[in-house]
Amino acid sequence: MNKKMPILFLSFYLLMASGLLMAKELPVVDGVRLIHAENHDVKMVFVEVAIEAGSVLDPKGKEGLASLSARMFLRGTDQRTYQEIMDEVNDLGASLDSSGHKEFIALAGDFMPRYLDRYAAIMADVLTNPVFPDKEFEHERSLVLEDLLNVRNDDADLARYFFARFLYQGHPLGRPNVGYSTSVASLKASDCRGFYKKNVRKGNLVVVLAGAIDEKAAKDFVKKITAGIPAGPRVRTDLPPAPKWKGIRVMVVDKPERTQTQVLLGHPSLNWRSPDLFPLLVGNTAFGGTFTSRLMQEIREKRGWSYGASSFITAGREFGTLAIRFFPANKDTVPAIRLTLDLLNDLVDKGLTDEETGYARNHIANQFPFRLETARKRAAEQLADEIYGRPDGYIRDYVATVRKQTTKGINAALARWFQPDDLAVVVVGTAKDLVGDLEKIPGVTSVVVHPFDKDQLANERK
Amino acid sequence: MILLSALLAGNESVAETRDFEAMAKGVSEEVPAAAPVRFLGSVRFGKDKDIGQFELGNGLRIILLEDHSAPVLSYQTWYGVGSRFEKRGKTGIAHLFEHLMFKGTENYPHDVFDRIFEEAGAQVNAATWLDWTFYFENLPAGQLELAARLEADRMVRLVLNQAQLDSERDVVKNERRFRVDNDPDGIMDETLLAMVFPTHPYGMPTIGYMEDIDNLTLDDCLTFYRTYYSPGNATLVIVGDVGARESLVTVAKQYGSIPRVEIPPSNPAPEKVQTKAMEKTLKLPVASEKARMAWRAVPATDNDVHALDLANEVLFSNESSRVYRILVEDKGLASDVDGAMEAFRLDGLFVVDLVMNAGKKADEAVEVVLSEMERLAREGPTEVELARAKNHMEAAFQRSLASVGSRATQLGMYELTAGDFRGMFTFVDQIRSVTAADVKRMVGKLLVRDRVNIVYGKPGKNGR
Questions:
Q1: CA distance A143 to chain B (A)
Q2: Contact B395/A112, CB-based, under 8 Å?
Q3: Which of B72, B142, B177 minimises the CB distance to A3?
């Protein structure tokens, strides 16, 4: 026990240093929330401007709008062309990129502190004055469409791309952030201008600054880059409830001549505020979260069926996802799925042992310092608190809450949240080698085959 | 530039050198089995940290960076053996053996070894490449002794049996299916490397050919272990929240009594100079055409490696680079363009990747690359381009130091690939000293049409 004290103490120190123990509300600079984490060991400053308008808000038929709008911030302002923006950023050795997520879009990059003023000027321009020029829009959209086309090159990407869609059956959480090829093709530059006008206001912004920058400089930076942004409140939108179904639904993403498959299976799960969150985090760690967990031992170590086998719980603002992934040779695919179902049923029926839960508690608690190791990681935890509405003290009390979990409570939560009878399964592989055996798995209610080079699923067509 | 030198490329600290020398002497006396413990040198890191290098009597080298900024540490064991030490017909043994190193020892059976680390909160993994194999544990502070005890144990007391080999062989075959056989980029990489190095072992895939993986025997693995896994062929890198003296004492106690083993030299004959361009076309399940190009370049120990790094920046690495602009922005031929100077211990590769837009021909993009190489060799980079490229490389270097794990990896990589970890701290100054004439000279000398190797990946169902 004594050995653990320094870790807890030093984690406490990092929490203090990062502000994660401090005020519940983030500091606000001229109407914009700021997350600041300082460390001067490495001479770089990371900056992220999160705008709380992600793909879950994309209107039906305009899926991909938030993501493409984010990309278009860099495609020209009333002062700089795209090439001028990128040349100025690259002159500094800096980076600046955009990204689209479920709950927000972001402009993010990093720079050496000696270029703070020059970088701030570029960021301010990009954030405040984007003009979404038609010609640049056509080009950026064509690059998104190429990306969507190239998803089919990589089997693991294909599995991820289709899994959420098959699982969520049209729910906004199942949409690819980048949209569908048909919806992206129908977007116009004016849609992006509308997105900007609707969503870019001070209340909707969170600015993250981490690394070699002190508090005063961070506040000045926020003032500079957001001076031209209109005031306005933060707006949050509730999501529809998660889909429910009975039985095991299977989709084979049919790709010719595969010698291996990519398998993802799972179902919707819980949100960040659920009282079952910590029991489930500990339980899932023991079941499939580490190299020595049950799933990895059974699939990889005992049988050599897959290079990796793991189980993930991703909590969400309203609900999240439980997903299990492995990638066996063709001949081992159906046996591996059957084994996984047996393991899930056994988990729900008999639960974990005291040894397993004790191990998982120690693993998670002892690994905690890595979540706060760098300024950027500490800032990322604060951003997740803010965006996903994690409960007060989530990080502050993390280790203590993990250590409080009992085997009984963990097993009860696993029985409530793991549903081996009601799953969505996506298999990327060669269908003719798989379908017959997949249909014979007990509990399977349907097996659909979807060509790997066709984008939209049946339930997404208009 | 002066500022940079002060912050990064720090000079050897006289006071710290004296401390480190006294420390080595003290550890020799405290742990006689490890004597003589020698201090090999130190270098300043940041404003107030020093990195020291030591060697035990059995040849084990240790690089130490004491850093208390977070309650974590990284413990890395770098062995000077990778796939270039393999023979044809036995490809993949270095990598398969890396997997087998997790199979347990006399003291810590298979099901215990990983569990102990994971329960302690460690992130544990390993990697194999051409010149090295390394094992890392990123641990919470206070767990140095655990890492040293288990790593020292498996350096000499690994237990292997046929069942473990067979099970892990299946895992590695699945890894090969994942990384190569079912991945168009993996297939193209493997093909290209074999073209650039038709006789040198750098041309053999680190993961191994499937038939070779199938045929490796338990005896092969045991012989490999006894030959290459010993203190004289290993460098430990310890970075993080632990005292330098405590680290050195702990390592000396755990490893000091392991005997030195002489390592057979590996001096493969250099590849002949290529005089004719080579190309291959593969039919792959890809949406659009791809091309991957490579030239033999220079090893990590060659000072001209930085001129080629900068050439890559000028031509390929970002939105302002010449080829990227032409292919992605101006002509709309490609959706992605990338390049890299990959320097190894004995040789190097300059690599270019092209992902075409639907319906566009990769050979048209390849011609743009070759023409722009010729233009760079003729005219050199502009002042603006060179300054931009240098800033980019400096920032990339800073990013590579973000965590204890990445700092330790950089130190180990420099030690094993460039031959001296201190090279890391002269990197920025070396980059800054490269001239436009250097870039022009190296591109004109090496990145020429007659020496290019090209693999095209074109849409089709038939793989290879």
A1: 6
A2: yes
A3: B142
A264 exposure class (CB count in 10 Å sphere: 0-12, 13-18, 19+): buried
Hey, what are A132's tokens? 């979404």
In this structure, which amino acid lies at residue A223? K
Whether A86 and B318 lie within 8 Å, measured CB to CB: yes
Which tokens sit at B236?
Answer: 């430990």
**Helix B362-379 and helix B436-446, axial crossing angle in degrees, nearest 10:** 130
Residue of B nearest to A360 (CA): B119
In a domain, B65, yes or no: yes
Cα distance from B96 to chain A (closest Cα, Å)?
A: 12
Which CATH number covers residue B172? 3.30.830.10
Residues B25 and B73 in one domain: yes
Per-residue pLDDT tens over the stretch B402-448: 999 999 999 999 999 999 999 898 999 999 999 999 999 999 999 99
> What CATH number does the domain located at A248-460 have?
3.30.830.10
Query: How many angstroms separate the CA of residue B458 from the nearest CA in chain A?
Result: 11
Query: Does some domain include residue B269?
Result: no
Residue-by-residue DSSP string for B177-215: IIIIIT-HHHHHHHHHHHHH-SSSGGGS-TT--HHHHHH
> Chain A residue closest to B402 (CA)?
A42
**Which residue is associated with the tokens 């004719």?**
B276
- Write the residue in A3, A93, A369 that is nearest to B70 by C-beta: A369
* Residue A323: half-sphere exposure toward Cβ, Cα within 13 Å: 18
Instruction: Tell me if B36 is assigned to some domain.
Output: yes
Domain boundaries, chain A: 19-226, 248-460
* ipTM here: 0.90
Of the candidates B3, B46, B288, the beta carbon closest to that of A149 is on B288
Quick check: B114 contacting A, CB < 8 Å? yes
Same-domain status, B77 and B198: yes
- Please state, as a whole number, how many other Cβ atoms lie within 10 Å of the Cβ of residue B214: 11
Tell me how close the Cα of B201 comes to any Cα of chain A, in angstroms.
26
Q: Residue B127 forms beta bridges with which residues?
A: B134
B314 and B389 Cβ atoms separated by less than 8 Å? yes
Task: Outline where B294-403 has alpha helix (H).
Answer: 305-315, 322-324, 362-379, 383-399
Q: Summarize pLDDT for A35-81 with one digit per residue, the tens.
A: 999 998 889 999 999 999 999 999 999 999 999 999 999 999 999 99
Domain boundary pick from B240, B255, B270? B255
Mean pLDDT score, A269-282: 95
Same fold, A19-226 and A248-460: yes
Contact B329 A3 (CB under 8 A): no
Give the range of the structural domain holding residue B367, as residue numbers without chain letter: 278-459
Instruction: Annotate B302-319 with DSSP letters as a single string.
Output: -TTHHHHHHHHHHHTSST
* Nearest chain B CA: its distance from A296 CA (Å): 11
Cα–Cα distance list, B26 to A17, A129, B20, B40, B254 (Å): 36, 64, 10, 15, 16
Is residue B115 within 8 A of residue A292, CB to CB? The reply is: yes
Touching A: B residues 368-427, CB under 8 Å = 384, 387-388, 390-396, 398-399, 401-404
